[in-house]
Amino acid sequence: MINNQIIDLKLLRHFVVIAETLSYTEAANVLKVTKSKLSKDIAKLEGELGSKVFDRSSRVVRLSEAGKILYSRALVLLEDSNHLFNDIKTLNSSVSGKLNLAAPPALGRVLSNYLLPNFLAAWPQVSLSLKLSYEYENLFKEGLDLAFRMGKNQHENLIQRQIGKANRVLVASPDYIKSHIIQGVEDLKSCKSVQFFESTQSTWTLQNRTKTEYASVPAAFQCADFVAVLNCVKNHLGIAQLPWFLVRDAIKSGELVHVLPDWVSPSLPIYMVYRQGFNKPNKLAEFLNYIDEHKTMFDLEFKGLSET
Length: 308
Known about the structure:
single chain; alpha/beta; elongated; 24% strand; 11 helices
């Protein structure tokens, strides 16, 4: 409320779309209104605020300082208003509806094997959508309720809670190990590597209980997909540094060999991130509670030879 006047949520919605596209033309197409209508709405919003929200020239649209502040708050206000109306429609007592999630592909496969099916069994009126991506999605733009992330959140308008840790271990096929003697980190340079993500420098950071070393291992294959990397390791192309939770079953079965088990990658935190706001929908609140009750499944670090 500004000067005892209520800001129209429709004006905020129009402002947010322009702020995200930085184009009146594109925003008009998204909102299916005319450019002149958008210009009038922004002028009205600026009049109510007593401040410019955009710095405009004939060719460029940029958020002003006031606009940047308004954008971060407007996202939360619009989200809260959506949840408020939805909760009122369901008398604020129903745990139902669609919950939109995102996770890195390897972690998402772990979640879909246990946590997500059991949650759906407990709350049959809820449906889940899981987007598997290595990108740090914009939860607001993608319409996501919650994302699991490996590594730190980069968006200041999100709540971030650490729920576990993961690390990577070195693995190879039994046939590959038969033809390579690997007794220490220095022996890795005589091997070929199978790398996750493409890079010009194939260097692994390795830690044991007392020190950190770096191993540069020539790459035989590189791919931005853990499953493809794992398949190539099983087909004897080389050694890979892969998440412990992805390879632990294959190590136990003997399909893979755990190479230099005293050496692991630095631990990476696992976070769940979700949007700020006072009014959480019940489906999300129950999902957060469910994760808290099952946090041990996110303890995905290799901690010693007793685990193999």
